[in-house]
Amino acid sequence: MDNTTSPALDAETKVAERPGDHEAELRLWLRLLTCTTLIEGELRRRLRNSFGVTLPRFDLMAQLDKTPSGMTLGELSKRMMVSNGNITGLVERLVAQGLLDRRASPSDRRVQLVSLTAEGRRTFRTMARANADWTSELFADLTPADIEQLMGLLSKTKQSARRARAGGED
Questions:
Q1: What's the predicted TM-score (pTM) here?
Q2: Beta strands in 12-94 (DSSP E)
C-alpha cells in the first residue's frame, strides 16, 4: 500500500487530527458572533436609553404588531424561543404599562390572548422607526452592493448550517 496518500477524512476526524484545517471557519464564526454581539448590544443600549425598554419587550411587541388579532402566550413563547414563564413576566409588565391587552380566548377560556393596545401600537411603531434608523446607521459603511453580497453569503451560510444540522440528527 502506498503511504504517500491518505484516505479522505470525514469532518469529525479532520477536526481531531488536523484542527488547523478549520482555522478559517473558526475565525469566520468568531467574526459573525462578534458582529452580532456588537450590533445587538448597541440596539439594546439605544432602546433602553431612548425608550426605557428592553430588547425582549421590544421583540414581544414586534410579534404582536404583526398579529393585530392577538396571540396566545404559547404562540409568543414559540415565536420568541423563550419559556412561557419569561413571556408571562414580559406580558404582565406591558399590561401594567397599558401597552398590552390580555383577555380570555373566546374558544377556550383557559387560554389567554394578548394584543397591543392602541397606545402600545403607537409606542411600538415609534420605537420601530427609531430602531430601523439605528440599524441603518450601524450598517452605514456598507454599500448597497456590499449588503446584497453579504445577504447572499449569509443565505448560503444558513443553508449550510441547516444541512449540517439535519445531517446530525439521530
A1: 0.78
A2: 71-72
